[in-house]
């Protein structure tokens, strides 16, 4: 497949990117695999001294992947919608891509118009770009797999609900705050230095994850998680209508053919009904899993041999698949790249780490690399203490997005230095995979915007005509805050603080107000594909990558390491996997000097905030050498005049009664 993709953008993007771097089927639901509840397996006992049950060992076989594809193809035929169908395992390996005869090769990034048109570039992101349709199918499959776990099953429709400017998104909800995971769609990026790339050579480490997504996470319905015996083992994504969009009104019921095709694919591989999104609420709003129902599907066709070669064929996708079928990896094994930590890697018996497939931790705990930028970098002992204390908080916290009620929170914790170097990453056993990359984004974002060099680094990013103008955001922030010294380290920014400045309305959700200075220039130009600085920092990388995919590798792929900010040191970019703009991180200080940051992701945003803030506080009490920013410099001391009304930024927000094991309340107050 050789096509021209967003050529006007690519020419400009090249200016900066040249330097950047035999088996059983799943347990059917009631009615012979056409729906109903899938039983939850009996959990294995937690490790000695632990509190979590690790997921049961399950994975997709080649035969099961064939069944899933055949079921989806049968529904696509019944609906006369030739489509691309992609299947991944839990850590993002593409197990198969099937292209039906007549499936469109291209799709438009949202046909919904913003500001009356579908602009591309000019500081308004990817809205309206034309890209390979197969990248949409893969992104949807990754979304279903990465957002889900043994305690929650989310789809790309769920993602659509939680990333828009009002929550829940609907014409009648204008004026409400933005979605709780506003900005998460720009994670798992193709340029991320954490997310792994397809390895056609095979061998040890070839299948480790988490793997990257060509477009980040998807808000377009048609992506679901795949479960086997109640355990999440992968995801399916379908693209056939040429419109890679989002659901702007979650109060009605859509008839979405792509979603129905994907739902047919997972019959017999459905998540347990008790953990689907419609059983979970956020801010009092029940989430959505699917508008399609098994009752509205055509009779299932599960014979892969009957459709392979007649209805379409397996296809290779540059950067993702060689066109063959493969079995999925088993999450929790060395081969998957995510496994239980050895005692020498992390002392808590519940901890999981990322590995290289050969037995070695990818991100072992280590000291800071930024001597010369800071007087006394973080020591390895300090990093270990921060992570241990944060993991203790996580292990006792009540989850928001997991079922059954009063489950323990599960998430990923990342610590970085002021250069953005990873000093350690640790996970609970069943945290959703998306939180791995996002926790690192959060840690780096809080550290970057608290850094004295933040403004200088943004001003040095080359302008990409027709794509982005990153330097312009610096003056916008300074004008907005009335502070010429903004972005020079005078204040400590948590991700909640930077998120305030990144919303299309300020204060969040209040229409007829000015947009935040890190958002799009006009609130009327917002879309999930055009959110402001977060998009502009990586738009060129994404354009370069999808062009590489479309042209079969004839053009260069994006480098490892997102954004055009200057290197902090050779090979080091402070925000090398993009920034994140929803809560869950704080910077780390020694006295009055910034020395790093901690980020947490995988559960509710208040829970993520608490683990980062309280974990760091407790490490500071334990060590006496570091801690949170002094209250006097935290971003919640910044006041913004909004039409004569004074509004403060926010720093962190912790749950009122967060713990399962103690009655403690308001645990972050006064710290």
UniProtKB/TrEMBL annotation:
Signal found in the keyword field: yes
Domain of life where this protein originates: Bacteria
Keyword line: Signal
Region described as Disordered: spans on this chain: 26-50
Signal sequence region: 1-18
Biased composition (Gly residues): 26-36
Keyword Signal: yes
UniProt name for this protein: Heme-binding protein
């Amino acid at each position: 497949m050789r096509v021209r993709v967003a050529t006007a953008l690519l020419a400009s993007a090249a200016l900066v990117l040249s330097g950047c771097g035999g088996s059983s089927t799943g347990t059917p639901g009631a009615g012979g695999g056409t729906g109903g509840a899938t039983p939850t397996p009996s959990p294995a006992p937690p490790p000695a001294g632990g509190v979590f049950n690790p997921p049961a060992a399950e994975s997709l076989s080649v035969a099961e992947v064939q069944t899933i594809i055949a079921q989806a193809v049968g529904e696509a035929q019944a609906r006369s919608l030739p489509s691309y169908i992609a299947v991944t395992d839990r850590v993002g390996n593409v197990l198969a891509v099937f292209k039906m005869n007549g499936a469109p090769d291209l799709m438009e990034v949202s046909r919904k118009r913003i500001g009356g048109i579908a602009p591309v570039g000019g500081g308004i992101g990817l809205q309206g770009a034309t890209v390979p349709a197969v990248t949409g199918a893969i992104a949807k499959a990754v979304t279903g797999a990465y957002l889900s776990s043994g305690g929650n099953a989310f789809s790309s429709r769920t993602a659509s609900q939680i990333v828009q400017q009002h929550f829940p998104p609907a014409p009648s909800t204008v004026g409400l705050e933005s979605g709780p995971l506003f900005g998460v769609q720009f994670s798992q990026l193709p340029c991320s230095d954490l997310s792994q790339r397809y390895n056609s050579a095979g061998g040890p480490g070839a299948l480790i994850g988490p793997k990257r997504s060509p477009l980040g996470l998807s808000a377009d319905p048609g992506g679901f998680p795949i479960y086997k015996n109640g355990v999440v083992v992968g995801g399916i994504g379908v693209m056939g209508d040429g419109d890679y969009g989002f659901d702007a009104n979650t109060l009605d019921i859509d008839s979405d053919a792509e979603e129905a095709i994907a739902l047919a694919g997972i019959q017999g591989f459905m998540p347990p009904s008790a953990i689907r999104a419609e059983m979970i609420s956020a801010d009092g709003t029940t989430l959505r899993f699917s508008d399609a129902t098994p009752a509205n599907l055509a009779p299932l066709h599960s014979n892969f041999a009957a459709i392979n070669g007649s209805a379409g064929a397996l296809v290779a996708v540059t950067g993702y698949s060689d066109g063959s079928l493969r079995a999925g990896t088993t999450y929790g094994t060395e081969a998957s790249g995510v496994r239980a930590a050895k005692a020498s890697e992390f002392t808590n018996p519940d901890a999981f780490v990322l590995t290289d497939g050969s037995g070695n931790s990818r991100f072992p705990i280590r000291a800071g690399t930024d001597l010369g930028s800071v007087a006394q970098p973080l020591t390895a002992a300090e990093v270990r203490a921060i992570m241990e204390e944060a993991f203790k908080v996580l292990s006792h916290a009540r989850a928001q997005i997991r079922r059954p009620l009063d489950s323990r929170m599960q998430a990923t914790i990342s610590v970085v230095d002021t250069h953005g170097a990873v000093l350690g990453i640790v996970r609970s056993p069943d945290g959703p995979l998306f939180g791995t990359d996002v926790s690192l984004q959060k840690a780096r974002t809080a550290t970057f915007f608290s850094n004295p060099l933040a403004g200088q680094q943004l001003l040095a990013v080359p302008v990409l005509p027709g794509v982005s103008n990153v330097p312009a955001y610096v003056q916008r922030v300074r004008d907005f805050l009335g502070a010429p010294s903004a972005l020079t380290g005078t204040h400590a920014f948590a991700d909640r603080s930077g998120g305030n400045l990144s919303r299309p309305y300020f204060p969040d959700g209040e229409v007829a107000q000015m947009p935040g200075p890190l958002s799009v220039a006009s609130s009327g130009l917002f879309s999930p594909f055009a959110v402001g600085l977060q998009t502009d920092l990586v738009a060129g990388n994404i354009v370069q990558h999808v062009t590489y995919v479309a042209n079969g590798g004839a053009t260069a792929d994006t480098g490892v390491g997102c954004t055009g900010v200057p290197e902090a040191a050779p090979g080091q970019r402070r925000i090398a996997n993009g920034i994140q703009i929803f809560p869950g991180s704080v910077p780390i200080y020694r006295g009055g000097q910034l020395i790093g940051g901690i980020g947490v992701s995988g559960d509710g945003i208040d829970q993520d905030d608490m683990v980062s803030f309280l974990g760091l506080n407790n490490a500071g009490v334990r060590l006496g050498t570091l801690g949170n920013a002094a209250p006097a410099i935290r971003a919640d001391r910044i006041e913004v005049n909004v039409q004569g009304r004074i509004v403060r930024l926010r720093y962190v927000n912790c749950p009122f009664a967060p713990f399962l094991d103690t009655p403690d309340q308001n645990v972050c107050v006064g710290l």
